[in-house]
Amino acid sequence: MIKKYAIKTWMEIGFIIIITLFIARPWIEKGLNRITIFDTKDYEIDFVDDSGYRIRMKKPADSVISLYSAHTENLFAIGADREVIGVGTHSIYPYEVLLKEKYDYRSDPEKVIAIHPDVVIIRPFIERHSPDFVNSLRRSGITVVSLYPDNFDEFDDYIMKLAKIVGKENTAKKKLEGFHKELDNLKVKNIDENKRVGVYFESSDREYKTITNNSMPAYAIELAGGINIATDAIPIEEGSSIAAYGVEKILEKADEIDVYVTQRGVMGAGGNYHSISIRPGFYAIKAVRNKRILEINQKIISSPTFRFIKGVKQLRRTFYPEIYDEIQEFDEDHLITREEFAKILVKLNHDVIFIPTSSYYRDDNKEHYYGALVDVTIEHESFDYIETAIRKSYLKSEIIDNEEYFNPEKYVTREELARVIYLLNDLENKIDIIINDEENIENIKIVKTIVSNKLMDLENGKFYPKRNITFEELKKGLDL
Q1: Could you report the per-residue pLDDT of 376-421, keeping only the tens digit for each?
Q2: CATH (domain of 118)
Q3: Domain end residue (candidates: 125, 150, 179)
Q4: Residue 83 within any structural domain of the chain
Q5: Integer Cα distance of 377 and 299 in angstroms
Q6: What 3-state DSSP class applies to 300?
Q7: Whole domain around residue 454: which residue ranges?
Q8: How many domains does the chain have?
Q9: Whether residue 240 is found in the same domain as residue 130
Q10: Looking at the domain assignment, is residue 36 inside a domain?
Q11: What pLDDT is attached to residue 235?
């Protein structure tokens, strides 16, 4: 009797389990470290994010808030500027981002919940440091997606996940194809192995941390023809792109370091030029002795965006200036355009391309804002040279009907050349000279100083400030 009762009981239990599973649909699936409840309906978007959550969406999002600046950049790059209705407090690129509403994950989540976007995109760092904010969004029914590629090999997958969220897969694929093609073209291939520069990359001045071998900066150094001297660095934790190193190891390899690269930015910045040059014992480093310390903006070297290309270009120019900062030769009678002038000046002075930080936009009284030019957009071939030339005050923009223009195809005038010569040289202000057309000169003091120092000539007592300059005049004026 006992045996029959036991069999009957187990049959009843099995029947109850089957009925429970049938009734309990939607069922529970375990994905990574998270438990996600879902039903059996078809979803156009289905993937696991970098915090372990299963993301399922019936259609691409029409309204997105991006709380990490790299996500914002990339969404704009793949054509999702309309879908992005809000950005994080550190999002400043491209220029159009400044017109978007700002949201802070360290503040009250109700501001986000009130407009109920289709998706909020974060990164795992935000989830770890502001879990209450993120959980409040999820409880309100907002889809929260956490993404971040730990190394360069994960970049394409990361971009395609962003693209799926907003339905821009085709655009993203084309963008990635162009990105990798340009990186391949940028790769330094014709440098003798014995002449390649040794590089140390400082990711943080706290305990002199560097980067791991599979990180984006390490790949950039390789593409730019450098040799990372810290390949023996150990990651601070599994999966991290930051590695421990220490001052002892740096000084052990002092004679191998031709260029010392330090990243500057909000997250874990390295030291600046001055602080590195005065550190005890650092004068033994070849790069410090030779003043080859590069401060590079974190946004173009460590941040997972398409601007990584700019970082590689800057490293190439710094590693091999004799090749990549060579000034293009023209016919002597060639008239110089403003675009060409900007490139020549930035290369001649080996200027690091200007990349703004969030504090840059706090000043409301600037004559020019990075990215605001109507005729030189971020896609322009000489965008970085022109923006850097303006930042260095080599050239000025022009305001017409409340819009800002650079006029890259206009020719450079003699007065513009005189102004640059004055800016780049420490000259004695000699103004005891008569110039017959000084009424046409905007800054007579500068022109008189340049002429008195015999850096530019008069013709029949006149300066002719609006006359365009040739390459021969430019070489003479800049003493090339």
Answers
A1: 999 999 999 999 999 999 999 999 999 999 999 999 999 999 999 9
A2: 3.40.50.1980
A3: 179
A4: yes
A5: 18
A6: helix
A7: 414-478
A8: 4
A9: no
A10: no
A11: 86
What separation in angstroms does the CA of 317 have from each of 226, 247, 356, 390? 11, 27, 19, 19
- Answer whether residue 354 is part of any domain: no
Strands 28-31 and 143-146: unpaired
> Are 394 and 342 contacting, i.e. CB atoms less than 8 angstroms apart?
yes
Spatial distance between the Cα atoms of 322 and 433, rounded to a whole number of angstroms: 39
Q: Is there a single domain that holds both residue 126 and residue 247?
A: no
CA distance linking residue 437 with residue 448, whole number of Å: 12
Joined tokens for residue 279: 């550190």
The answer on 89 and 6 residing in a single domain is no
Both 275 and 302 in a single domain?
A: yes
Which two structure tokens, joined as six digits, stand for 444?
């007579």
Q: Are 165 and 64 in contact (CB under 8 A)?
A: yes
Q: Is the pLDDT of residue 18 over 50?
A: no
pLDDT tens track for 222-275 = 999 999 999 998 888 877 888 889 899 999 999 999 999 999 987 657 899 999
* Statement to judge: residues 64 and 169 lie in one domain: yes
Any domain includes 156: yes
Distant-in-sequence contacts of 280-286, Cβ < 8 A, 24+ apart: 281/247, 281/251, 282/251, 284/251, 284/254, 285/200, 285/250, 285/251, 285/254, 285/257, 285/260, 286/254, 286/255, 286/256, 286/257, 286/258
Q: Which residue, 292, 320, 348, sits at the end of a domain?
A: 320
How crowded is residue 232: how many other Cβ atoms within 10 Å of its Cβ? 11
**Quick one: DSSP state of residue 254?**
G
- Please check whether residues 253 and 166 belong to one and the same domain: no
The DSSP element (H or E) to which 84 belongs, if any, is strand 84-88
Instruction: Tell me the one-letter amino acid at 174.
Output: K
Same domain as 175, residue 48: yes
Domain shared by 168 and 74, yes or no = yes
- Structure-token match 């330090």, residue found: 262
* Residue 39: per-residue pLDDT: 52
> pTM of the prediction?
0.87
**Are 66 and 75 a contacting pair, CB within 8 Å?**
yes
Structure tokens at 386: 């022109």
Residues in contact with 22: Cβ distance below 8 Å, sequence separation at least 6, in sequence order: none
Distances in whole angstroms, Cα of residue 280 to Cα of each of 26, 198, 233, 253, 456? 64, 21, 22, 15, 46
pLDDT score of 329:
78
pLDDT tens digits along 336-383: 999 999 999 999 999 999 999 888 887 767 789 999 999 999 999 999
